[in-house]
Design a protein that fits this description.
The protein is of the alpha+beta class and 241 residues long. It contains ten helices and six strands, in the order ααβααβαααββαββαα. Helices cover 50% and strands 12% of the residues. The protein is globular. It is found in: Membrane.
Length: 241
């Protein structure tokens, strides 16, 4: 029973850690939206791979799936000269360095979308806010006290929390961006985080688009087969009934 309670607490933690501002933002991921996936891959390589890995996928697989030439993959996604295009997406930061700098090793993001879902990732990327009481200067409503710095701060800007007093307590009700601190407006940043979430959803299941495409034909086959089987059954049993 104790183990069961601990498991439930762990699974529900991302939901209960949210502030009053909202429970979960919704995002539309599409494994067939290659322009979005290409932009997401570039964002991941430029802003996430300094700390995180996606070690279950290789650079050349990304190029094949997303329609990116090997030359472009090497130019925009690979920054270590010694890295080969057939290698996995790993970073240069060791676990010991991550623990020294942030207190915990940075997790591999290969299966994050399968574990938590795209909405979780999208909400997390949009819910960083300035908190001078933390080591990084930022906090997050999804994971309170997160050790992760706001890697996309230069894009979004410095987001400040807005509180209201309710029943004698301050409640987080929204956010406002400090003017002149980000290179994107709100809609552009939402699109960027949607692209990044879409890419991480693809990384978690690279075969998803093909699975969905084949699934349509499988259902059509079963539909036609069911009709044929029905009439065949009627033909075999017509003299019995």
């Amino acid at each position: 029973m104790k183990k069961l309670m601990l498991m439930l607490t762990f699974l529900l933690m991302p939901l209960t850690a949210m502030g009053e501002v909202d429970s979960r933002m919704s995002v539309d991921v599409d494994p067939n939206d290659k322009p979005s996936l290409q932009r997401g891959a570039k964002l991941f390589a430029n802003y996430c791979m300094a700390c995180h890995e996606a070690s279950l996928i290789r650079y050349n697989r990304i190029g094949q799936d997303l329609g990116i030439d090997d030359e472009l993959v090497e130019e925009y996604l690979i920054f270590k000269p010694e890295t080969q295009i057939q290698e996995q997406m790993t970073n240069a930061m060791s676990e010991s360095d991550a623990e020294n700098w942030f207190g915990v090793p940075a997790p591999d993001l290969s299966l994050t979308a399968r574990r938590h879902g795209p909405d979780y990732i999208y909400t997390f990327l949009n819910r960083f806010y300035v908190d001078e009481d933390t080591i990084t200067g930022f906090n997050n409503t999804v994971i309170s006290g997160t050790a992760m710095p706001h890697a996309l701060e230069s894009l979004q800007g410095r987001q400040h929390p807005v509180y209201e007093e309710r029943d004698g307590e301050e409640v987080l009700v929204g956010f406002e961006i400090e003017e002149g601190t980000g290179t994107m407006d709100e809609s552009e940043y939402r699109q960027a985080t949607r692209d990044l979430t879409n890419f991480l959803d693809y990384v978690a299941e690279p075969i998803k688009a093909e699975r969905q495409r084949l699934g349509v034909w499988v259902l059509l086959f079963f539909g036609v087969f069911t009709v044929l089987a029905y009439f065949l059954k009627k033909e075999y049993w017509k003299d019995v009934h």
